[in-house]
Amino acid sequence: MESSLLDTAAAAVSLCPTAAGRRRAGSAASFLSCSCSSRDCRVSASYSHSINRVLSGVRSAARKKLFRADPADLLGVANWSETTGTGHQQQHWWTALEHNFVLESTDDEYGGVVVDADRLPTDKDAFARSLAASLSYWKSVGKKGVWLKLPVDRAEFVPLAVKEGFKYHHAEESYLMMTYWIPDEPNMLPANASHQVGVGGFVINDQMEVLVVQEKYRGSSLDGVWKLPTGFILASEEIYTGASREVKEETGVDTEFIDVVAFRHAHNVAFQKSDLFFICMLRPVSSEIKIDETEIQAAKWMPLEEFVKQPFIQEDHMFQKIMDICIQRLRKCYCGLTPHHVVSKFDDRTSTLYYNVAKPEDVNCSAA
């Protein structure tokens, strides 16, 4: 059944020389009716009206075999449909073809399309032809941005997309995302993520000892320095859970998040990304240290006074200020930001809003 449908569709797409000549003359009726005596060369007007029904019954996997057709035939039909008017028969012919040569995709909310990465052709030539045909179609219907996600096992498609004008957007371990902006106007597609997010955990126990580490891989400026446990937030991870996770991974100590006491914003850091670094105050709920030997050289509980007096902190204005803030927070002379789950009408999703809910207990506190 699948083969017969494909044969029928292929016969409908084929044009005899006489019909081709009439097509160039601009006659839709001539295009849809061949005067050749050969049975294989006859395409009647009534037959053309059944093409949609025939092609709609072809399964997606079988339709992809049509990508092997001569691209000149496909683009010729498309161009003819666009340049000779908008008659019913011409539109009908275009509609019959568009769903069988255009890459599977869904519309995004900004007038563009997102190509279905799971339904890409497996053959390079088929992909090249279908991509060219898809761009022609998307342009004709007024689409704007195109998002093309190419999995690792389709890496050979990357040069073909570049040749068509696609640009790199971002890459992950399993795929490369590419984009194409169609209108002749400023590109409105959102750029790749511009920031990385880090956290540092200020963990202090009832004996006024701070949990500190020495990293195994560090710059020479950090030789001998004891610092706070730090790390990067994972995808879809909250700041407060990320801070506790990093402390646990590096030192083995379990903690309870209290609040965000400060954050730093720096630019052109790793890979020219901007960096947001959140200082979080945490309460320890265990005390035994068990370091992650792959990245931590040593860890210990250090008296707060000794930690603050390290030359590295005393000579660095930013770290000195961070310590001042943390000490003020311990004295309850400073309020940090605590997480609260809220739902916004903007996207109808739950997110985390950080803000303080209390005033310092002692308004006469002074900086340490």
From TrEMBL:
Gene3D superfamilies per the UniProt record, alphabetical: 3.40.630.30, Nucleoside Triphosphate Pyrophosphohydrolase
Note the superkingdom of the native organism: Eukaryota
Keyword line: Hydrolase, Metal-binding
- Output the InterPro entries linked to this UniProt entry: NUDIX_hydrolase-like_dom_sf (IPR015797), Nudix_hydrolase6-like (IPR003293), NUDIX_hydrolase_CS (IPR020084), NUDIX_hydrolase_dom (IPR000086), Pre-Nudix (IPR040618)
Q: Where is the signal peptide?
A: none
Q: Which CDD domains match?
A: NUDIX_ASFGF2_Nudt6
Q: What Pfam families is this protein classified in? A: NUDIX, Nudix_hydro
UniProt domain Nudix hydrolase: residue ranges? 194-324
GO MF annotation, one: ADP-ribose diphosphatase activity
Tell me if Oxidoreductase is a UniProt keyword of this record. no
Per the similarity annotation, which family is this? Belongs to the Nudix hydrolase family.
Protein name, UniProt field? Nudix hydrolase 8
Q: What is the lineage of its organism?
A: Eukaryota, Viridiplantae, Streptophyta, Embryophyta, Tracheophyta
